[in-house]
Structures are given as structure tokens and as C-alpha cells.
Amino acid sequence: MSRGKVIITGGCGYIGSHTSVELIKNKFDVVIFDDLSNSKEFIMDRIYQIAGVKPAFEKVDLSNPIEADRAYYKHSDAHSIINFAAFKAVGESVEKPILYYKNNLYTLINSIEAQKKYGIKNFIFSSSATVYGNPNRLPITESFQTKRAFSPYGNSKKIAEEILEDFSKAYPEFKTISLRYFNPIGAHESGLIGELPNGIPNNLLPYVTQCAAGVLKELQVFGNDYNTKDGTPIRDYVHVVDLAKAHVKALERLLSGNMKENYDVYNLGTGKGVTVMDIINTFEKVTKEKINYRITKRRAGDVQALFASAEKAKNNLGWEATLSLENMIETSWNWEKTFRDM
Ligand code: UD1
Q1: Can you give the pLDDT of all 342 residues of the chain as single tens digits?
Q2: Cα(299) to centroid(ligand 1), Å
Q3: Which end of the chain, N or C, is less packed with Cβ atoms under 10 Å?
Q4: Which residues participate in catalysis according to the annotation?
Q5: CA atoms of 43 and 320, how far apart (whole Å)
Q6: pTM of this prediction?
């Protein structure tokens, strides 16, 4: 029996597509809203191939209030919204701040407005560890003060969280969870969905796989003078399939009626810190491919070390990351080798 309808905004994207698969497997009816500005419609077929059900699809620009209202009205029988729809290129957001604030915040505001208008009770927001800025201590727990982010992209996540908190205070009948992702990598084990690159990647893993595939010539390692075991920065890399499963757990939490507060936040990470050199060395070991890399100067805005305390998600959601770094790298590489033939 169906567990009801869930709207996934940005459901053709990287984390949205993996989450759609997990929700379908868990018997939810999935409707995807996507403007396809940074994703492809064939992902719908891929979701079908993996999960056995093709979600309903609305091509909609949610930053446009009229379009957004039309789509939400059509699916106003949904009980929940999971909001992935956002621009995410950090560098581009520095060059085009208005574009980023407009797209990421209008989309959010139009979605919660529809939530209120149509009585869609539950909301999950795709946030980021970037809201912690450069933390004073590690591991990072959810009680840490959030800080103004370095980039408009990051700041749009922080502002969005604040909007959602205010919304839940004003309208207690609506429940919201923000999920703060650490560094999502990896792809589905089927090789059918993964992160689709848009131009030259900013993030480490897509850059590494494209270097190994010969698409890019050389990886720059941004600094080896940090105070870490090998001088390169530490991050908490987490498998996208583990992340997707966390959304199912968060949704079940919202639906359970067991939430003490009607707004809550969770870190999603493994709790383990991994350096850039660990990534390169593990990649070479797992794939037997060489990475052509060069140490360069630090990248502006990078912090030395970030890793999560994943205890709250474990205790309250019953979620824990289970997939290994080797698996994350293997599936990323598998995806890199196959998607170009599509
Ligand atoms: C970045 C964003 C963050 C966003 C997250 C997920 C910045 C400053 N932060 O986080 O806001 O939420 O992506 O999209 O951009 N590295 C290299 N060479 C490269 C690329 C990366 O050495 O070509 C290093 C970086 O210095 C960093 C690590 O790899 O230490 C991870 O980088 P990246 O994948 O860009 O993630 P974050 O910087 O953690």
C-alpha cells in the first residue's frame, strides 16, 4: 500500500534522483518537480529502471510564483515536500550573487507558501555543512553556532534555514527538518545515476574522476600546508546513497508525530575525517588508475578541517552512514566511465 505522495523538487539532480529511488523502494509515491536547468530528463527513465516505478514529473521553474503555484495546486494531495531545487556552484555564486539568492530563496519561499496554502504538512530542506563556516572545535555538532558563509551559495543555505525556522515558529502545524550534508560523493551501484558534470567541476571527486578519465589534464591540490597529517584539508565524505536513505528516515520522523520541536536540524556525515591525499591514494588503489596532480596554493575560502558528529541522526533518526570510502570512490569511477556513452 502507498505511504502517500511526496514532492521532490530538483528530483532529477544528483542527490534528488538517489533520494527518489529510495523513497519509491520505501513505497512512497514520488512526484518530481524540476526545471532541468542543471539536470536531464532521461534520469526519470533511470529511476524507473532502478526502482521499477516512474515518478510523475512536472517541468517547472519554482522561482516563478505562478508556475510554482500551478504545480503545487496540481499535487496538493501530497503530504510532504523535499526541497533539493537550488543552484550549487560556489564560484559562480560569488560572481552572480543576485542569481543565486533569487533562485535559491524564491524557490524556497514559493514552496513554503504553497505548503501553507495547500496544507502540505512536512518539509525537508537540503542544507549544507557550509553553514558552520570555519568551526572552532571538531567534530561538529548541531548545537554549534551557524556563521555567515563565505559564498552567496553557502549563505543562501543559511538564510533558507532561518526562513524555515521562522516559518515553523509562526505556523506550528507545519514540521520541517533541515539536513546538513557534509561532502556527498559516490553514485548508485547500478551505474545508472550519479552526478552529471556541468562544465568544469568545482568539487574534488568529479575533478579526480575526470582527470583519471583524461577529460581534464591535471588535478590541483589546493595547499599542503594545513595542520593535518599530510598537510591537505580534512572533509567528511559521505556516500550519496547513504544520504538518500537519511531522507527516508527524516521523512518517517516527520510523519511519526514524535518530533519534540516542529523545526529540527541534522548533520549527515560519517563522522570520519579524510584528507585530499587520502582521496587520491584511495582512488589510485581502488581503480588502479593514476592521478596526475600538482600541489598549488590554498583556495580562497577553504577551511582546514570539517567533520560531523553524526550522533544526533543516529539517535533520533536511526540513520548511520554504512558505505565505505572505497565504495564511494568505486561507484563514482564506475559512473564516470559509463555516463559519457549515454
Ligand atoms: C564545497 C563548498 C561548499 C559546498 C560543498 C558541496 C567551497 C569553499 N565550499 O565544499 O560550500 O557545500 O562544496 O558542494 O567551495 N580540492 C582540491 N582540488 C580541487 C577541488 C577540491 O584540492 O580541484 C580540495 C579542497 O581544497 C577541499 C577538498 O578538496 O579541501 C574538498 O573540496 P570540495 O569538493 O570543493 O568541497 P568543500 O570545499 O568541502
Answers
A1: 899 999 999 999 999 999 999 999 999 999 999 999 999 999 999 999 999 999 999 999 999 999 999 999 999 999 999 999 999 999 999 999 999 999 999 999 999 999 999 999 999 999 999 999 999 999 999 999 999 888 999 999 999 999 999 999 999 999 999 999 999 999 999 999 999 988 889 899 999 999 999 999 999 999 999 999 999 999 999 999 999 999 999 999 999 998 989 999 999 999 999 999 999 999 999 999 999 999 999 999 899 999 999 999 999 999 999 999 999 999 999 999 988 666
A2: 9
A3: N
A4: 153
A5: 27
A6: 0.97
Task: Pick the atom of ligand 1 nearest to 300's CA.
Answer: 8
Chain centre distance of CA 286: 25
Burial class (CB in 10 A: 0-12, 13-18, 19+), 186: buried
What domains does the chain contain, in order, with CATH numbers? 5-184+238-269 (3.40.50.720)
Residue to mutate (ligand 1; options 302, 328, 329; most atoms within 8 A of CB): 302
What residue ranges line ligand 1, CB within 6 angstroms? 88, 90, 128, 130, 150, 153-154, 183, 202-204, 207, 219-222, 233, 235, 276, 299, 301-302
C-alpha to C-alpha distances, 321 to 69, 96, 264, 279, nearest whole angstrom:
36, 35, 19, 18
